[in-house]
User: Fold this.
Amino acid sequence: MYLPYIFKEVFRRKSRTLTNVLTIAVIITMLISVTAIMSAYTSAIYLPFKDVDSDMILQKSYNTTNLTSEIRVPFGRETFDDGEIASISTLSHVQDISRSLVLWDFDKKGFTSIEGIESGSAVGKKLGSWVTEGRFINGSDSKKAVLESHFAKFNHLKVGNNISLGGETFNVVGILKIGEGSPIFSSNIYIKSSDAQRISGIEEYDQLYLKVDDLANEEAVKEEINQIDPMITAVSGNYISTSLKNVVNIYGTFYWVGVGIMALIAILVLFKVNAMALLERRRDIAILQSVGWTKKEITKQILFETSLQTMLGFVLGTIASLAVIILLGTVSIQSASTGLESTPTTITMPLTLSPGIIAEYFGLIVVVSLLVSYLLAKKISDVKPSENLRSM
Assistant:
């Protein structure tokens, strides 16, 4: 109805139209961007445990040994003896076990984390698949090292360079980039387990990676491990998810509180903007009444104008939200694995523009805008033309 008049009103009053469109665009940008960030945070909680090619990681807490050595096991960690490893490997649900020796190296330059890996183990193969330069260590190597990419870049190290560990010289044969979802594996330097044992003087292993036949048997495996030694800590994806459940629930609650507050602000702002716009038009409405427009026709015309401005503002706000998400998606954060001594790994927030969220907010904004405009237009159109003219 009266489409030429509607478009004429929208584009003739550029200042008012621009104000309404930009207001809606800002509200949409805030709603979509904040929601995307909240959703990304919830997803990022679980990123550190994604793509880990092990179902369970074992560590043993006890009296720390070798306290005075420059290269030593992490504080509060004890090594597994051969009998314990043999008992764990023969558990009914354990399919594979990978052994490693995680060490801390304190020298004049600072702190470095080292992990002695069995190159042929499942963990060794997983790490080998992440090599970006050179190669991974193999069974015949001696005094060879592979560096984590961020550590190598920070220390200006490349394939072919030499590094000193425990008074011995190691040749760098490869650079690897830890999978973004797997900082559990993140150490600065990877060497053969036999080399790690030699430079530290420790003959055992202090970290075990387990593969179980079925994730449903995790609890049974943990109970059996506890019977072997109650000081053994078993960390798994299910364990971490359970430990973070309360955090996620709290975050989920505040997510809806935040969205509710944003929606309330949107309603108040749209009410104010539309109210001011309609009050400015009381004279125009009085003229339309004088030439025979009915209350129904005036209300429809105003609703069509509001719909057009709302859609323009929504499109602009969606484009702005996409720009914000793309910008924030390039920002990296440091994430360390829970309960494991390892170097923080850089991950990016999984920010996405959800079609479902866009549809929900489109519905919210349209309903709020039309409802506010309808109530105000109906109220103003109920007023006699003479009173509308006198109000100006």
